[in-house]
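Weekly modeling sync, notes
Attendees: S.R. (lead), two postdocs, one rotation student

Agenda item 3: backlog of single-chain predictions. S.R. asked that every request posted to the team notebook include the full sequence so nobody has to chase files. The rotation student volunteered to paste the first one in as an example of the format we agreed on. Action items at the bottom.

Example entry:
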Amino acid sequence: MGLQALIGVFAAAGTTREALTALLTEQEEIARAWTTAGSADALALIHARDSDHLEQIILRLQRTKAVVHTRTQILLTELVSRG
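Predicted structure, as returned to the notebook:
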């Protein structure tokens, strides 16, 4: 399956939730995404082939006007999984 990562997306000022949803929906590697009450505006679950592919996804997001920056965490061992 490659690797999975969580990408925190920090949106540019004035970016609407609808615009952010549209941007994230366009990225086929994003399996799920949520708005957050944390420091990032959104959190996206990514499925990538390898680290090079993950880097391409990150750079693609960062090149858009809607994204100021991202923060990425690569997922390692799943500790708990409930339906």
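Discussion: group reviewed the output briefly. The beta strands are 3-11, 30-35, 42-48, 67-74.
Action items: rotation student to repeat for the remaining queue; S.R. to check formatting next week.
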